[in-house]
Amino acid sequence: LTVASGATVMIEMASHHACDDYDKMIKGDAGMESIFEWSTSVMAVSKRGATGGGDGVHVLTGPIEVEGAEPGDILAVEIVDLKPRVNPEGKTYGSNAAAWWGYQARTNKADGTSFKAGAFTGTPGINDEVVTIYELFEEDGKAYATLSYQFKWPTITDPDGVERDFIAYPGTCVPHEYLGFSDTVATMGWTKASPITYFSEPYKAKIPLNMHVGCMGLAPASHEYVDSIPPMPTGGNLDNKRIGVGTTMYYPVEVAGALLSMGDAHAAQGDSELDGTGIETSITGTFKVTLIKKATFSKPWMGKLDFPLGETNKTWIVHSFTERDYLETYKDNPGDIYGASSIDKAMINTYLTTRTFLMVTYSLTEPEANTIITQAVDFGMTQLVDGNWGVHAVVPKSVFAPTSVRRALTASSKKAKKNRRLVAPPADLALSNETVHWGFFSKLEAPKLTVASGATVVIEMASHHACDDYDKMIKGDAGMESIFEWSTSVMAVSKRGATGGGDGVHVLTGPIEVEGAEPGDILAVEIVDLKPRVNPEGKTYGSNAAAWWGYQARTNKADGTSFKAGAFTGTPGINDEVVTIYELFEEDGKAYATLSYQFKWPTITDPDGVERDFIAYPGTCVPHEYLGFSDTVATMGWTKASPITYFSEPYKAKIPLNMHVGCMGLAPASHEYVDSIPPMPTGGNLDNKRIGVGTTMYYPVEVAGALLSMGDAHAAQGDSELDGTGIETSITGTFKVTLIKKATFSKPWMGKLDFPLGETNKTWIVHSFTERD
After folding, report:
1. Integer Cα distance of 375 and 712 in angstroms
2. How far apart are CA 731 and CA 509, in angstroms?
3. Rounded to whole angstroms, how far apart are CA atoms 96 and 133?
4. Which of 77, 267, 697, 771 could form a disulfide with 279 if both were Cys (CB 3.0 to 4.6 A apart)?
5. Residue 524, class by beta-carbon neighbours within 10 Å (0-12 exposed, 13-18 middle, 19+ buried)?
6. H-helix or E-strand containing 550?
């Protein structure tokens, strides 16, 4: 097909998994039958894969030539509509293959044995691959899919006489034997070695549809033919559920005519496409195709586009992969990407791509981009199955939107006094140097409060970053001052970290002893309310540290040089760490944070005479020199080696607040003291923005009394906490604490709980880590 720029076209897309059940997804549909015809005498589509040997699986419709498209241009493809393809009986089905290339195959099964896939895993005739056939349906005006049946993949011989005992070749047709299945597949010449194992009554889960196009993109210039599975700069197999109706994809054009192809449509999929595929189904799409000529580029990012970019009315969707361009990295043998899959490299590349995109699009400095990414952008695993694994970043456009009238988020204004959500109730555990412990969880720490099961308690939490600006977050607040007092004569909280040497950073309120709690029980902690702590001027501030432990420090800066953090990186006196002070505010009844100012971390000498040239010790107070800053910090004995570098007029991004508790959990039994930074089975520093109002956390109890502590409250954070911290601020929380005794466990999962579990009215939130314990 050849179209002009601006054309709207309707394109039919066939699922390459349709022959997992020929009768339900192909039979009686002339178009589908013509594609999947493969008998002893005919193979209707004989070239399958880049070499023709099956190395590439998707049925792609196209290519579509766009008139006038030349290398250097951009093709914009708007997804106007997607409709499921119905069979002659008026029904739509889809298939999911839990296959050898799925992530689940990389670890043991639930019974402890390895995942087997016939000859592929060196276990001929033994196969754990399972296919699920889904049926699409409507309920109360909403579209869903449910499991129709499942079957174990059999050993199949194709019409050419080739036997395969795992899912190995695109377009393989399964010769089913269930009641009513026609003889069409058998007649074509497909046979199986033994009867198929069916699971005919699977759990009838109700999967909400999120129809999207799994594989859409342009032909690359580098190779004559490329495998359709690994994604690339010109798009292809992104497998992102966000590429649905309302999304426009922008692809860099590399060849004349652009040559747009699309297929691999999905009825539904979660982030990761974990077991190998989505719900693969055939879909008809309506697309508007617009050519953006290089000479007419109107936006700064257009000249830098070297990746597939998505846009909706509310978000940008940035994609990258293990290799940003695997066709260049492995140009002599592109298939080598399958042995190089790395989620860590995909994350780094997506961060770099997002950083560049935001700096170019919104004229941000690198420090501005890093802090905005950390607080407002959500990173997610797009797919972990396509060789060139993918990560995406979802950037909300509202962060960069013009603002209307802003009002300080304050409990002292007349309006705020009437607004109870800004006024914290009296605390059951108020902040002081006597009610907190700094940087550790410990079974030996004396309880600061004892409560009965079912109690609702109000707990004040202090940010360990408050001394990044003493005047804005500590001064005049007696509780905060008592915690952060560190002068030449006094250190109010002297033990900081598990060893006392700063190896652990969070100011934790507690511990709270729960009467009757014993090892083996579960403690449920419901977050009833969270309110920001206001300073004596009625304002609330927070701090973000783009520090040496942040992910951005693992790669080069925008100028190509490495990230430096003083002595920590072997570069004494040279430090790229930047702190952003945020102010919380209200606009149109909604709460936000915006950048107040930024500064480069200076070389600081503490009141005990220890000099540090990077962010190295919890509770360090910055001796600022900006106009109006008091002499309190200097009087305590803090000094700096040279004047501080300030960025006083940063981009006024508008970060929506998502207040949550970064570090909350129970003392573990295994050690007397543990660092508060790494999360653990009993909770701790999860740093999940979902641990906010309305969430109940369930923690396994390991010690008598449970010993619950909490702190590290955040005003906002995106998924990743990329640069090192969220917007760290002090918050007062209301929590309901309920002890679930082992003898009264009422749900099956309770006896298996060995991780911190979250629950809301709509979701479960499962946590795990590099090491589960």
Report:
1. 15
2. 11
3. 7
4. 267
5. middle
6. none
What are the DSSP calls for 457-488, one per residue?
EEEEE--TTGGGGHHHHTTT-HHHHHHH-B-S
**755 vs 735: CA distance, rounded Å:** 20
- Position 657 scores a pLDDT of 98
Q: Say if CB 723 and CB 374 are below 8 A apart.
A: yes
Residue 583 has pLDDT above 50, yes or no: yes
**pLDDT tens digits, one per residue of 512-530:** 999 999 999 999 999 999 9
Closest CA to 469 of 730, 267, 716: 730
Q: How far apart are alpha carbons 377 and 398 in whole angstroms?
A: 11
Averaged pLDDT for residues 763-767: 98
- Is the pLDDT score of 405 beyond 80? no
Q: Which helix (H) or strand (E) holds 544?
A: strand 541-546
Distance CA 145, CA 652 (A): 43
Two structure tokens written together for 386: 């396509």
Q: How many residues are recorded in the chain?
A: 773
> Residue by residue, what is the 3-state secondary structure of 109-157?
CCCCCCCCEHHHHCCCCCECCEEEEEEEEEECCEEEEEEEEEEECCCEE
Q: How far is CA 435 from CA 136, 431, 701, in A?
A: 56, 6, 22
Name the amino acid, one letter, at 240.
N
CA distance 451 to 456: 9
CA dihedral of residues 531, 535, 536, 537 (deg, nearest 10): -100
Nearest to 196 by CA among 214, 219, 179: 179
State the number of CA atoms in the 13 A half-sphere of 316 facing the CB. Answer: 23
pLDDT, tens only, 639-673: 999 999 999 999 999 999 999 999 999 999 999 99
Nearest to 425 by CA among 280, 355, 579, 530: 530
Could you tell me how far CA 248 lies from the centroid of its own chain? 21
d(CA 340, CA 629): 52
Contact 99, 276 (CB under 8 A): yes
Q: What is the mean pLDDT of residues 624-639?
A: 98
Q: Provide the whole-model pTM.
A: 0.97
